[in-house]
Design brief:
2% helix; Jelly Rolls; 1 helix; single chain; 2 domains; 17 strands
Length: 241
């Protein structure tokens, strides 16, 4: 058993890295079980209901920060976004979780004599996916392929999901196109594109998926960069569920 202190991790909400402000992450998966007991039963019988995903972060409020922290959170209330967090400081081949979610709360908590605090709450509206960041958080200034990783096949009842967070973009008319491909071997001699993300020219996030069956077990991200002196900081997480 590996027991350790929770520190030096990454959490992304939309197109922004919140790790420098957050000091607590709370995630709850639950199912709304329904009592289906009949008069012929001698014990309680329950039928699985709808899944419910709760997410929240707490941290330190900075009202004087740029628009990527305070104003964006106010604007995002009741908005849909993508949330991912990872078990490392954004390094390659580490695991985390991704959820498409609706922001339900942004609450600064200001008390005299205390650190300024805030809370962000969200409700997941789709699948919670255990993801792997194939390349980690990377800076892309030119077109190229990421590292191939063996994540496994996708059965006929499963989907493969890709969560992308573009946390910075600069240059003149910069563009970033990201695709996720699979192959039956790590050399990627016969790759097949499975997911194509929307083009990015600024910070943002997106989740896309495609259905199985896919017998390939190796996966790779390709980054296509355009514009004049473009630069993007981006992290992609891929998961099968």
């Amino acid at each position: 058993m590996a027991i350790g202190v929770y520190a030096n991790k990454k959490v992304y909400i939309g197109g922004y890295d919140r790790s420098g402000y957050v000091n607590q992450i709370n995630m709850g998966w639950k199912n709304d079980l329904q009592d289906s007991t009949t008069v012929g039963d001698s014990t309680r019988i329950y039928t699985a209901g709808l899944n419910d995903i709760d997410f929240s972060v707490e941290g330190f409020y900075d009202p004087d920060s740029d628009d990527t922290v305070d104003k964006v959170m106010w604007d995002d209330i009741a908005g849909e976004t993508e949330i991912s967090w990872f078990s490392s400081a954004g390094t390659a081949n580490t695991t985390g979780y991704g959820i498409p979610a609706t922001i339900t709360e942004y609450s600064p908590d200001l008390k005299i004599g205390s650190l300024r605090a805030f809370r962000i709450s969200a409700k997941g509206y789709g699948k919670s996916v255990r993801i792997t960041t194939l390349d980690g958080i990377v800076t892309k200034t030119s077109t190229g392929n990421g590292t191939a990783r063996e994540l496994g096949a996708v059965s006929s009842t499963q989907k493969v999901y890709s969560f992308i967070h573009v946390v910075s973009a600069s240059g003149t008319s910069p563009t970033l196109n990201v695709t996720v491909a699979s192959d039956d071997a790590g050399g990627f001699t016969t790759p097949t594109t499975r997911i194509t993300h929307s083009q990015f020219s600024a910070v943002g996030s997106e989740v896309k998926s495609t259905s199985g069956a896919i017998t390939d077990t190796y996966w790779r991200v390709t980054y296509t960069v355009g514009g004049t002196t473009p630069s993007f900081d981006v992290i992609v997480g891929v998961g099968i569920v």
